[in-house]
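Hi support team,

I submitted a single chain yesterday and got back a structure, but I'm not sure I'm reading the token output correctly. Could someone confirm the output below corresponds to the sequence I sent? I've pasted both exactly as they appear in my results page.

Thanks,
R.
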Amino acid sequence: MMRPPTINRVAVLCGGFSKEREVSLVSGNAAALALKNKGIAVSLIDLTRDMGRLVSTLTTEKPDVVFNALHGRFGEDGCIQGLLDMMSLPYTNSGRLASAMAMDKSVAKRIFATAGIPVAEERIVTRAAAEEGDVMARPYVLKPLNEGSSVGVKIVRPGDNRPPLDDLGVERDELIMAERFIPGREVTVAVMGDRPLAVTEISTARAFYDYEAKYAEGGSQHTLPAQLPKKLTDRAMELSLIAHRVLGCRGVSRADLRLDGDEFFMLEVNTQPGLTPTSLVPEQAQYLGMSFDDLILWMVEHAQCDA
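Hi R., thanks for writing in. Yes, this is the structure output for that exact sequence:
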């Protein structure tokens, strides 16, 4: 794996064309400002579908590192990572394989289960089947297989009318995941390199921790550190580190878990955690005494590629 010997110039990729474009723009601008504060020359690149233009820009600018601030499909699922690998350009966070596996919720859950990490029962069904009737006992969750930030997620509860599924972003014959709803408390753990940082409990007045709860001001409340017995805190951090390792993640990741009674269930691992003012990873880093600027610099210093 190739690491940058010196870092004088960084290209920040952000925006893009996924459903998380607006969040990515915020993350990218925040990362760019932090790097400038550290005296590093920065170019901000809003990703389009013109890959030839991107390759030309990166070839001309010759950055020492690419800071990947993209969220969602094509930026978080191994696509852009593969391109940067071919260009021998070190980039932040996970490589193409770990990114692809983490983004595919069903694949990631199989890997977690093999490693002994508890996961919720699931079924893979077509959107048409989910619209026609219950695909498992209620309550359960319907979600796209490869979106982040809770995009398109629906909870089907006892007594609910069948929800419209148009905003799942898939055609009627495409596959989605139906997953047993895990009641209880939601927590998240950032992993930085080979170190879990802290446990944050997330609460919201909304039906669940959806896209608006994640990114709208006041959409959720973060309790840091989570008010849990030490045994449960240690367990959440242990499971998050195992998940980071078995997927082959590097740099920074963030694991989302649900606590039902005294057992945690892994929901997903985010290989491109948000860097917005309401984001959880910067909050945990700050709790441990690391400023936002230092966090971004650490990510750049630990950039790699599979050249």
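A quick pointer for reading it: Residues 84 and 90 are 7 Å apart (CA to CA). Let us know if anything else looks off.

Best,
Support desk
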